[in-house]
């Protein structure tokens, strides 16, 4: 699984609607409204690198109100939550 973090600049007056539209797109797993230079951060998860082109410039960038995006590809995931869940598999609480 390939994960991309997509920073999205939008029309400020339409952030909630744009966020909902982006979140509904195939390949987008989560969308966060954030402070700072960008208005939204989307997590894109796809099977192949080629699929990123379909999701990011092919879908996200075409959402009305998206002004521009900046994409970062994740090399590895380091998540305490994921590690704890992996070690808890099969154990009764």
Automatic annotation (TrEMBL):
InterPro entries noted in UniProt: Dimeric_a/b-barrel, Tscrpt_reg_AsnC/Lrp_C
Pfam families: AsnC_trans_reg
Protein name: Lrp/AsnC ligand binding domain-containing protein
Organism encoding this protein: Streptomyces thermolineatus
Every Transcription regulator AsnC/Lrp ligand binding domain range: 6-77
């Amino acid at each position: 699984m390939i994960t991309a973090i997509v920073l999205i600049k939008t029309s400020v007056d339409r952030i909630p609607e744009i966020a909902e539209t982006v979140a509904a797109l195939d390949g987008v797993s989560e969308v966060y409204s954030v402070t700072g230079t960008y208005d939204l951060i989307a997590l894109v998860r796809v099977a192949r690198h080629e699929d990123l082109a379909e999701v990011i410039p092919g879908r996200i960038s075409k959402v009305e109100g998206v002004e521009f995006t900046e994409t970062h590809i994740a090399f590895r995931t380091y998540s305490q939550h994921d590690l704890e869940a992996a070690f808890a598999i099969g154990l009764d609480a």
